[in-house]
Amino acid sequence: MKSNPAIADSHQLIKLRYGAKELTHFPKLQARQILAGGHKSHFRGRGMDFDQVRLYQPGDDVRSIDWRVTARTQVPHTKVFIEERERPILIICDLRSSMFFGSQRLKSVVACEVSAALAWAGLGINDRVGGVIFGAQKQLDVKPKRSHHTALQFIHGLQNFSEALLEPQPDSLDLATILEESRRLALPGSTVFIVSDFHDLNSDCEPHLFSLAKHCSINFCQVIDNLERQLPEPALYAVGNGERQAILDTSDVKLRDHFAYQFSQRENLLQKLCEQLSAVLLPFNTSQPVIHLLAKAYGKRRSARKSN
Q1: Cα–Cα distance between 54 and 56 in angstroms, integer?
Q2: Is beta strand 77-85 parallel, antiparallel or unpaired with respect to 39-45?
Q3: Does residue 32 have a pLDDT over 50?
Q4: How many domains does the chain fold into?
């Protein structure tokens, strides 16, 4: 039976785990939570990986003294190690009404694919993975765990929420409220991926993002459709939102300019926040395969060929 292209098919989302195996450079940012895991952090102590030798300081563990360097310099030196710590991954997926749009594929379907691929990539590096899905009227919280069952729970939630968009409902939450709620759910030291079109990003969102960035690493996964950058060729188009229909005249120059200006303003704000928060921005166009775009960011990096 052929799947509905307007719904994120859980079977397809599960298959993304094969493509996620190629994301061998999935971000290994600074960890802040003191738990056993697979990521190097800037915490220093008695861990698995040697970091450096420095002068002995009162309070240092005598078991870490480097006796060879001490004998050679006649001054006590100690070894410093980089500990491995866990970095839980939290994926925040925005499936509100604005995501039910797309000229190539629906933004909601692309957002589900991005979220599922990130979940599989996180499990692939042995991290705890969880997520929050925000729909028009409800949300689903999946606590981070190192478990395929948890990933499947999250994926089935993505399918259900994308299917709910077939019946238009007014949004009960704005982006600022979503980010405020995310602050409560994100554990300190988490890597947070926010998957959204950020259509209602504004100054009200900023305090929540800055508060989140104090304890977590933020990644913006922006889902974009080409029709959001500029209106289609000048003509009369029938448009609707599921409840109302109207005729859109795209030959209006002022309308075209205002439309493009609004998009550029939102883009500029997002870029500015990325710089201020030291956040990562990953754009996903609805016309391109998700794994292809993720591979550009996290795939194997081929070394440049030496020129003769």
Answers
A1: 6
A2: antiparallel
A3: no
A4: 2
Cβ pair 241, 101 in contact under 8 A: no
Q: Tokens 């304890």 correspond to what residue?
A: 215
Q: What is the pLDDT of residues 40-91, one digit of tens each?
A: 444 444 445 566 788 888 777 788 899 999 999 999 998 876 554 567 999 9
190 found inside a domain: yes
Q: What does residue 200 show for φ and ψ, rounded to 5 degrees? A: -115, 30
> Are 14 and 68 within one domain?
no
d(Cα 266, Cα 262) in Å, to the nearest integer?
Answer: 6
User: What is the secondary structure of 237-263 as a DSSP string?
Assistant: EEEE-SS-EEEEETT-HHHHHHHHHHH
Residues 51 and 172 in one domain: no
- Rounded to 5 degrees, φ, ψ at 12 are -70, -35
Residue 93 CA to residue 284 CA, distance in Å, equals 14
Within a domain: 5: no
Residue 61 burial by Cβ neighbours in a 10 Å radius (0-12, 13-18, 19+): exposed
138 in any annotated domain: yes
The CATH number covering residue 194 comes to 3.40.50.410
How do beta strands 217-224 and 280-285 pair?
Answer: parallel
Tokens of 91: 């994926």
Contact 128/89 with Cβ under 8 angstroms? Answer: yes
Q: Strand pairing partners for 284?
A: 223
- Nearest to residue 118, comparing CAs of 254, 270, 294? 294
Distances (CA, A) of 250 to 165, 236, 259: 27, 7, 10
Which two structure tokens, joined as six digits, stand for 76? 């006590």
* Nearest Cα to Cα of residue 290 among 90, 118, 44, 71: 118
- In this predicted model, which residue has the larger pLDDT, 126 or 30? 126
CA nearest neighbour of 89 among 42, 47, 28: 28
